[in-house]
Amino acid sequence: MKKVKFIFKKIKGFQYKQFFSIINEIHKKTRKSRIIIFFDIVFTV
């Protein structure tokens, strides 16, 4: 349960404009799905 709270706290504190621009850059280079990149970043932070 602590991990879930930690993840939601991290998501709440994101600067979304920068975050999604980084996701778009990664998507352009790797051609991976943006949603997969999103969750990969969220769960590794």
Structure description:
With 45 residues, this protein is mostly helical. It has one domain (2-44). 82% of the residues lie in helices and 0% in strands. The chain is built from three helices and no strands. The longest helix is centred in the middle third of the chain and has 15 residues, at 16-30. It starts with a helix and ends with a helix. The model has no long low-confidence stretch (mean pLDDT 85).
The computed structural class is: mainly alpha
Radius of gyration over alpha carbons? 11 Å
Number of helices: 3
Mean pLDDT: 85
Q: Spell the H/E element sequence.
A: HHH
Termini distance? 16 Å
The proportion of residues forming helix, as a percent range, comes to: over 70%
Low-confidence segments, given as residue ranges, are none
Tally of strands: 0
Largest pleated sheet: none
Shape annotation: elongated
Strand content range: under 5%
**What is the domain total for the residues?**
1
